Amino acid sequence: MERKKQELIPRVKICCISSPEEAALAVKYGASALGLVSEMPSGPGVISLELIAEIAGGVPPGVSTFLLTSKTSTEEILAQQQICRCSTIQLTDYTAPEVHHELRRALPGIKIVQVIHVTGEESIYTAKKYAETADALLLDSGNTSLAVKELGGTGRTHDWSLSRRIRETVSKPIFLAGGLRPENVRQAITTVSPYGLDLCSGVRTNGSLDEKKLKAFMRMVMNHS
Hints:
This protein has 225 residues and is an alpha/beta fold. The protein has 9 helices and 10 strands.
């Protein structure tokens, strides 16, 4: 019974990590993954590829490092990863299906996580398509159809009932993102039952990782059941 309870506790990915100090703080409170944001059309947390490489290189074994990229061509993504050397590539925009295959061939052992921007019923179809080639899906509140694309970091929640349906439809692990914070994370876990949780602004104050908020969030996650 105890093992079953442990399996229900989602993994936590803290995104928009901007320094080795923030990385260490996130790991201290139990984050199993760190999000490192490269060039984006909008949103917070963008840092240089060189700083991503520095942070990723100092993360302890067992903690995943996610390179968030807005690039959609294999060549551009590989060029970024050659510098950053993260353990996971998070594709925040939609790519051609063959890009997943090309990345997998070029980067053996590197995980591919595809972001799905949950905007309506069509998102379920999109998730099913990308679940065929990605290692995991990350359900977020962005919008790729805007003049300036929102590819993450919106701080908004979306329709979690759609995320639940996606989770029930695909066989790959599901990360839930978008507007998560200590006050709503229990409801998010109960509604969606995700494999992992991803957040940025919900544990920050004036853009900086806030130890008090981070501690409160992790406490809610660990004690949700």
